[in-house]
Design brief:
Strand content: under 5%
Number of helices: 7
Number of domains: 2
Oligomer: single chain
Radius of gyration: 16 Å
Distance between the termini: 37 Å
Largest sheet: none
Shape: globular
Number of strands: 0
Helix content: 40-55%
Length: 149
C-alpha cells in the first residue's frame, strides 16, 4: 500500500527539504508516490530538476520508482539509495551538492536570466527576492495553491 500525497490538493515537499542530506529527494519521492497513485496533478516525476539528483547519485528513475511502488517509507528508500547508488558519495559531497542546489539560479544557455525573470514575473511581478530555482519552485507551489504572490 502506497501512502501518497494528493498533489492536486497540496504541493510536494519543498525542494529545500532534505533526506539523508540530499535536497530535492523528498520532493522526488512525493511526486513518485503521487504519480503511482494517480494524484500527481501537474507535477512530474523525473522532471529536469529531479534529474540533477538522479545524475548525482547514479540512481535510475525507474529503479527508484520500483522502490516507491513497493510501499517503502522515506527511511527505507534512503537505506536502499545508500546501498544501491552506483555513485557512492561522502557526506561532505552530499552537503556541498545540496548547498549548491539550494542557491542555484539560472546558469546557462537554456536557463538565461531573462527566462528566469519571465517565469518569476508570470507568478509575481513585484517579487524581487526570488533568486534561485528553489525560491521559484516554492513561490510557484505557494501561488498555485491559492497563496498571494
Amino acid at each position: 500500500m502506497i501512502s501518497a500525497p494528493n498533489l492536486t490538493q497540496r504541493p510536494p515537499r519543498s525542494p529545500r527539504v532534505r533526506l539523508g542530506g540530499y535536497v530535492i529527494l523528498p520532493r522526488v519521492l512525493d511526486k513518485g508516490r503521487a504519480e503511482l497513485a494517480g494524484t500527481a496533478g501537474e507535477y512530474k516525476y523525473n522532471n529536469p530538476m529531479d534529474r540533477h539528483w538522479f545524475r548525482f547519485t547514479g540512481i535510475q528513475p525507474d529503479a527508484l520508482k520500483a522502490e516507491i511502488a513497493a510501499g517503502k517509507g522515506d527511511g527505507e528508500i534512503l537505506t536502499w539509495i545508500q546501498e544501491q547508488a552506483p555513485i557512492q558519495r561522502a557526506p561532505w559531497e552530499i552537503q556541498q551538492w545540496s548547498a549548491y542546489h539550494n542557491e542555484r539560479g539560472p546558469d546557462g544557455d537554456v536557463e538565461t536570466l531573462e527566462y528566469f525573470a519571465q517565469r518569476v514575473g508570470a507568478l509575481s511581478p513585484v517579487r524581487e527576492d526570488i533568486k534561485s530555482w528553489f525560491d521559484y519552485l516554492d513561490l510557484d507551489d505557494h501561488v498555485h495553491f491559492g497563496g498571494k504572490p
